[in-house]
Design brief:
about 475 residues, alpha/beta, Rossmann fold, Helicase, Ruva Protein, domain 3, 4 domains, 5-stranded parallel sheet, 21 helices, about 15% strand, phosphoprotein, Sigma_54_int_dom_ATP-bd_2, Sig_transdc_resp-reg_receiver, HTH_Fis, nucleotide-binding
Length: about 475
């Protein structure tokens, strides 16, 4: 029998919930304070905790943190009388299964509880792999399959791994958000490989490259002769992913018409090839990725709100590389090993000034850009260590440009106090302008030259004058 703990300082609500859940086959205990709840939880584990957010001696956030520290796999549902989206997102990122508002509807809450317990059981399988403290297992990522996913050691990386571990064993649809190049497909594959579907297909689909005319056929497939040019029967991506996971990259680029067709398929879990009358039952987990703000797209009428909510059973935000601190060096080392294998080289590491450049650069292209930079540097390196001359100009000069820009700003003086010659002042103003434009366009020389209204050769000559070549 599944055990549930209800934590609510309103005795009547706790009593009503207890009776309702007992009638539905659960073993139920109640607590009217956070202290009592933690006392009960420390004595015995529960499958699920239903906790009111506002308690007299604490709040649901603190209770959630304490429960996850003691029993990471225990499901927690937070109940509140106030709807607050930001708070809901925060609680889910802290490990809550769901966040529901009063009034409570019996069928709805029972459905949520059953799903939460299903998730809890799936997570428990991972934690039974090895003996020991559950928290230690969580920190060691017991049973966590990484494939080519590099975890890193920063706090943001640890939080990302924790979210993947929590969501992977469930059947939830997931939205992955983040800048281009942050590794959304790698995260999607990692979720798949740590799910119960890991032995089934993982099918990736780039929605950004789809035309309106081709999208229907790519998603749903078509029968031979169903339209001009349909020379053979085509199996769509939904059908290919049946039993496994379908990853839709850049989903925000889909046309509104295709979104409507997609909504029907996601809702009904059935697909029909174009030109066919036969419906095919689907068992597909959907993971979507976007570098856009889909909620803004909803407001602007470019994305369907109902489809967004179908996808958004759980969301994970991938931090940009510039926010991951010394994880950059972990990524760089991993990419160096890959490049050595690919190019049959034996480059062993990076010089100190290269390390400084890698850590100071802002990486607008994120992990994808870093990987390309390391592959290029490995190819160009003549010795056993990557030297600064093997890095692209925008990276090797970024730290120096920032330092010069700061110095110029710090030493600027009023015109009346300056005794410099007019020519020197004009040159310094020109250099400041060049530095500013280069930083704004992330050292894209073509864009910088266009903005400055000079050709690339002239720009390079002026950059040499500033000693940033």
């Amino acid at each position: 029998m599944k055990k549930i703990l209800i934590v609510d300082d309103e005795v009547n609500i706790g009593l009503l919930l207890s009776r309702f859940l007992t009638r539905n086959g659960f073993e139920v205990n109640t607590a009217t304070s956070g202290a009592t709840a933690m006392e009960l939880i420390s004595k015995e584990p529960y499958n699920l905790v239903l906790c009111d957010f506002r308690l007299e001696d604490t709040d649901g956030r603190e209770i959630l943190k304490k429960i996850k520290a003691i029993h990471p796999t225990t499901g927690v549902i937070i109940i509140t009388g106030y709807s607050d989206i930001k708070l809901a997102v925060e609680l889910i990122k802290l490990g809550a299964y769901d966040y529901i508002t009063k009034p409570l509807y019996p069928d709805e809450i029972l459905n949520t509880i059953n799903k939460a317990i299903e998730t809890q059981e799936a997570l428990s399988k991972v934690y039974k792999e090895e003996p020991g403290n559950p928290q230690q297992k969580q920190q060691a990522n017991a049973g966590f399959v990484k494939e080519k996913f590099i975890t890193g050691q920063s706090m943001v990386s640890a939080d990302l791994v924790r979210q993947i571990e929590l969501i992977a064993p469930t059947s939830y649809s997931v939205i992955l958000t983040g800048e281009s190049g942050t590794g959304k497909e790698s995260v999607a594959k990692t979720i798949h490989l740590n799910s119960l579907r890991k032995d089934k297909p993982f099918i990736a689909m780039d929605c950004g490259s789809l035309t309106k005319e081709l999208a229907g056929s790519e998603f749903f497939g078509h029968e031979k002769g169903s339209f001009t040019g349909a020379l053979y029967t085509k199996i769509g991506h939904f059908e290919m992913a049946n039993g496994g996971t379908l990853f839709l990259d850049e989903v925000g680029n889909l046309s509104y018409d295709i979104q409507a067709a997609l909504l029907r398929t996601v809702q009904e879990r059935k697909v029909k090839r174009i030109g066919s009358t036969k419906e095919i039952n689907l068992d597909v987990r959907i993971i979507v990725a976007t570098n856009e703000n889909l909620q803004d797209s909803i407001v602007k009428g470019r994305f369907r709100e109902d489809l967004y909510h179908r996808f958004n059973e759980f969301s994970i935000h991938l931090p940009p590389l510039r926010q991951r601190g010394k994880d950059i060096l972990i990524f760089a080392d991993s990419f160096l090993k890959e490049a050595n294998q690919e190019l049959n080289r034996n480059v062993t590491g990076f010089s100190d000034d290269v390390v400084e450049c890698l850590l100071s650069y802002n990486w607008p292209g994120n992990v994808r850009e870093l990987k390309n930079v390391i592959r290029r540097a490995t190819l160009l390196t003549e010795g056993s260590v990557v030297q600064i001359k093997s890095l692209p100009l925008e990276i090797s000069t970024f730290a120096r440009v920032s330092a010069m820009e700061t110095a110029m700003g710090a030493t600027a003086a009023p015109v009346g106090e300056s005794k410099r010659k007019l020519k020197d002042a004009a040159m310094e103003a020109e250099y400041e302008t060049i530095l500013k434009v280069l930083k704004e366009v992330n050292f894209n020389k073509t864009k910088a030259a266009r903005i400055l209204n000079i050709d690339r050769k002239t720009l390079y000559n002026k950059m040499r004058g500033i000693k940033i070549e």
